[in-house]
TrEMBL record:
Domain Cupin type-1: 25-174
UniProt organism field: Miscanthus lutarioriparius
UniProt name for this protein: Germin-like protein
Protein keywords: Apoplast, Disulfide bond, Manganese, Metal-binding, Secreted, Signal
Binding site for Mn(2+): 74, 76, 81, 120
Organismal lineage: Eukaryota, Viridiplantae, Streptophyta, Embryophyta, Tracheophyta
Molecular function GO labels: manganese ion binding
Gene3D superfamilies tied to this protein: Jelly Rolls (2.60.120.10)
Compartment(s) where it occurs, according to its Swiss-Prot or TrEMBL record: Secreted, Extracellular space, Apoplast
Binding sites annotated in the UniProt record for oxalate: 71, 76, 81
Cited SMART domains: Cupin_1
GO BP terms: plasmodesmata-mediated intercellular transport; regulation of root development
Length: 183
């Protein structure tokens, strides 16, 4: 039963992802959530733009990577993520709770899975653009970037806690914090 449910959810995610890939230029044109200026802008369709996603318990995104662009280490606390590479190739990986890195290179037409709640990343490993469709088994997967969570929290995580955790000088912690102003 669980296997059939998981398979159904993944099938629904990929069906929605295919719709997003085909409809992205027309449906998402002018979408303010799709910034083309960063290294890895993410296009997150709303229920208004793709109403078929509502109540399915799934969500999809398209991520476009500039050459050598990075989607930095982050966590989705409420969802497993499946990516399908549309263009280019990426170095990807996730770290288990036993601190083991599982990493791979995925190319156009290939798939990679990031388990729920684990720190993971993606990096375009080429001189040209790359793009992926990202599907989640949750309507609200949540995204928590690791660096922003630690160095840009409001109120801030105490400098001495971070210095001891990373075994670095408090001055370096402050220098890193200055790059992540609280939101």
């Amino acid at each position: 039963m669980v296997n059939k449910l998981s398979t159904s959810l993944l099938a629904a995610c990929f069906a929605a992802a295919v719709l997003l890939a085909l409809a992205a230029p027309a449906v998402l044109a002018g979408d303010p959530t799709c910034s083309r200026t960063s290294a890895s802008p993410t296009t997150n369709p709303s229920r208004a733009k793709l109403p078929g996603l509502n109540t399915l318990g799934v969500s999809v995104s398209r991520i476009d990577y500039a050459p050598w662009g990075v989607n930095p280490p982050h966590v989705h606390p409420r969802a497993t993520e499946v990516i399908f590479v549309l263009q280019g190739s990426l170095d990807v990986g996730f770290v288990t709770t036993a601190n083991r890195l599982y990493a791979s290179t995925v190319c156009a037409g290939e798939v990679f899975v990031f388990p729920r709640g684990l720190v993971h990343y993606q990096r375009n490993n080429g001189g040209g653009p790359a793009a992926v469709l990202s599907a989640f088994d949750s309507q609200l997967p949540g995204t928590q970037p690791v660096a922003e969570a630690l160095f840009g929290a409001s109120p801030p995580v105490p400098t001495d806690v971070l210095a001891r955790s990373f075994q670095i000088d408090g001055g370096l912690v402050e220098a890193i914090k200055s790059k992540f102003p609280p939101k």
